[in-house]
Amino acid sequence: TAHSPSLRPPSPALCHQHPQLPSSPLPPLRAPLAHPESRSPHAVPGPIPSVPLPSLHSRPHPFPLPGHAKPRKAFPVIGIDYKHVRIPFEISLWILLACLMKLGFHVIPSVSSIVPESCLLIVVGLLVGGLIKGVGEKPPILKSDIFFLFLLPPIILDAGYFLPLRPFTENLGTILIFAVVGTLWNAFFLGGLMYAVCQLGGPGLNHIGLLANLLFGSIISAVDPVAVLAVFEEIHINELLHILVFGESLLNDAVTVVLYHLFEEFASFEQVTILDIILGFLSFFVVSLGGVLVGVIYGVIAAFTSRFTSHIRVIEPLFVFLYSYMAYLSAELFHLSGIMALIAAGVVMRPYVEANISHKSHTTIKYFLKMWSSVSETLIFIFLGVSTVAGHHYWNWTFVISTLFFCLIARVLGVLVLTWFINKFRIVKLTPKDQFIIAYGGLRGAIAFSLGYLLDYHHFDMRDMFLTAIITVIFFTVFVQGMTIRPLVDLLAVKKKQETKRSINEEIHTQFLDHLLTGIEDICGHYGHHHWKDKLNRFNKKYVKKCLIAGERSKEPQLIAFYHKMEMKQAIELVESGGIGKIPSAVSTVSIQNINPQTLPLERVLPALSKDKEEEIRKILRTNLQKTRQRLRSYNRHTLVADPYEEAWNQMLLRRQKARQLEQKMNNYLTVPAHRVDSPTMSRARIGSDPLAYEPKEDSENLPIITIDPASPQSPESAELTSEEPKGCSGLPPSPEEDEEGLVMRVKEPSSPGTDDVFTPGNSDSPSNQRMLRCLSDPGPRPEPEEGEPFIPKGQ
Amino acid sequence: MALLDQKNNNVSITVFILCCVHTIMTRKENGWQEHREDFQRIPELAINPLGDRIINAFFPEGEDQVNFRGFMRTLAHFRPIEDNEKSKDQNGPEPLNSRSNKLHFAFRLYDLDKDDKISRDELLQVLRMMVGVNISDEQLGSIADRTIQEADQDGDSAISFAEFVKVLEKVDVEQKMSIRFLH
């Protein structure tokens, strides 16, 4: 009724009104249609379905109209409609340019080792901007909206989600002092000095008031996380310095936000009273703590949601991203600190989400975050370059040079004084070398530029000059400081980051020391760092983990989780590196005589696999696995799990690897009676449908138990096994080694000469291994109901 | 106070000592002697997995009391390492709060039978205390095996003090095993 007129070809009366209407914008289109004279008086079309209309009018009019002598065009076979796709097209083009640039830098290694990537990107931006300007078009400027809403959040989320929590909390006091007091000092020192300069600087600068200068100071004084990340990532300095500078750049956002809004408001007041100042002081706490609170709330909700995602694994990463982004936007909504909200959300949700989601989702989150933040960073720097070319500039020598000079002085002075103060409270003092790096690493970046860009022309007519000065400082810090920091770090022999992974020893002993120190602190009655950490951990274990982590992972102690993660990583590495015949070199030859012999375990005997059953299994696997290589797998996005071939292959590889570990363990260690229990790995595997983590559910009666008998005279391969062991242990009684799944294999038949192509890893693999593999390939008479055993016929 | 064998007995140490001792000593009736029960009365120590071992570390061999001097000796391990101490002459006895002595203190808490080695059993005991009851024995066993495998260099399937030190070389023991007090 009211809508249908819009779908019919427009009536002749209406035609006159809009032959020259533009194709894309909608509102003008509505206006004429809202006043239909020729139609029924009561039919005022309500909300017009806007979708069909533009397309209706963007193409040349298909219907020949009576009374209109329009020349008939031939039916357009090919047409160009740039306006239709303009915005997404340009965005994609820019992003593509950014990625190609990144690619290019790494193809030319010599340049990228001297000049940090951020500098190169700014230069590229300058060139591109110059190109666009030369062509005659107006190059785009980095709009503050786009920067703050789209480009900045991925970088901050990446930083917050992967924030190394231990060094961060250990140095939190130092970081906070640098962030809050340091930024305040910078802002006021700089603002005050610039005011003095302006007063003395001649007629061009005299009119700039104190508040405007203070505002300028607060914009330029904040250390920028994007620039710091970009430069510090490449120089690999030690963890402490990295977290100090980086943490400072993240946490000073609250101060910057408060000061910026404060001075912006004040600039429009005629008088600033004490009450305003007190309110400003109060607002700092509101902004920072409010931001953190918002982040924590969203983090908890995200963790809670992830508890239930075991059936829809595909969208798990999306929850993480969306909740974090919502936290950022909600904080920005209330003028709270969006960066702190984002960091808090990432930090809070991470331990619980990682316990709940599958391995694949974890990888997805990691790679998506890295990808987005990388692209964002590249775009930011390119746009900085372009905006430099595109923007209006007003160069005033005095102002700019003195800004630069005082920025540096303010930073150095601030760091020196604060470090002297902080060192009174630190156990590990900050050396002068550290102080130098901290001061030198205070880079300014795109946040300062965007904040300056946001300034209103009406209140601040010297905005162009401010922008010029800001850009100059940014260029100086990024180019000069960014380029020279690497040789300086080498020259001063600053400690670099240690690349080695944390060993399980470190983990155990660190926890041990934690408990020890907590105990000592309790004896002294001193409620220090360890005491509160211990209390938080207990609270976490008792209440929070139960709510937020699904299933039995909630009871898994941290040590066990660490151990499992490490084992998994090792398994994956082994598989990826080909894994064949490569026994890790950390195998130590343990002389077994020192170890107290333990009681022999009960030997569970099960019928070994019959030959034809083995043959059948092998045949099925061979045919199916060969097919995998030829097929082009089409993914059904609704069921990521249901890919039996990939799953089978992965299981195969994992079993092989486990078999290898089994053998290695048996060669070296004392064994423990195999007594099965539902280990967290398995329950996690059941919850997550990740094939790599899958292991069949144990059942003491039904699973085939495999024991290798190294000293048994019948098995010919016993000679090989004993030859790997150190001398003097050939008399060791056979002892089945426990495994994560308690799977132990008894090898009864003599080794068969034939080996499969599919399974043959190489010459170094012993026949017993192959036999174990073949036997292990049978998942057991009672397969896991959810996973199913696709390559074993049911009812076996 | 010449109670401690420290080279620098500045006022801060005295303050530190008095502050922390006050909490316990106020519960005392019989002078400057500590008994095991006094320690065991501290509620937080009861839930600490290492509570008993820590208490035992304060008491010298076989005795049931510790005097003030002994108490302070044990606590002195946890003083932060001062910068000026590092450059002191090497002639004197190593101060109690040096890195090596701190690590030795921790090592002694592992090594109950005092054979200068952390055997697999001792490690298992500690793991069991830290991890709780939910984990199976052989899982803990495999963790203990792995731990010993990583650390062991002379092949005796136990962790000696030197190996212990080597494993913890990347951990910032000076910071971890120090308690900050008023300065």
TrEMBL record, chain A:
Residues 712-721, 761-771 have a biased composition (Polar residues). GO terms for biological process: regulation of intracellular pH; sodium ion import across plasma membrane. It is found in: Basolateral cell membrane. Residues 96-489 form the Cation/H+ exchanger transmembrane domain. It is a multi-pass membrane protein. The chain crosses the membrane at residues 91-108, 114-134, 146-163, 175-198, 210-231, 243-263, 275-305, 325-348, 369-391, 397-423, 435-454, 466-489. Residues 586-671 form the Sodium/hydrogen exchanger regulatory region domain. InterPro entries: Cation/H_exchanger_CPA1, Cation/H_exchanger_TM, NaH_exchanger, NHE-1-like, NHE_CaM-bd. This is Sodium/hydrogen exchanger. It comes from Ficedula albicollis. The gene is SLC9A1.
UniProtKB/TrEMBL annotation, chain B:
One of its GO terms (cellular component) is membrane raft. This is Calcineurin like EF-hand protein 1. Keywords: Calcium, Cell membrane, Cytoplasm, Lipoprotein, Membrane, Metal-binding, Myristate, Nucleus, Phosphoprotein, Protein transport, Repeat, Transport. Its main location: membrane. It comes from the Eukaryota. One of its GO terms (biological process) is negative regulation of protein import into nucleus. It is found in: Cell membrane; Cytoplasm; Nucleus. CDD domains: EFh.
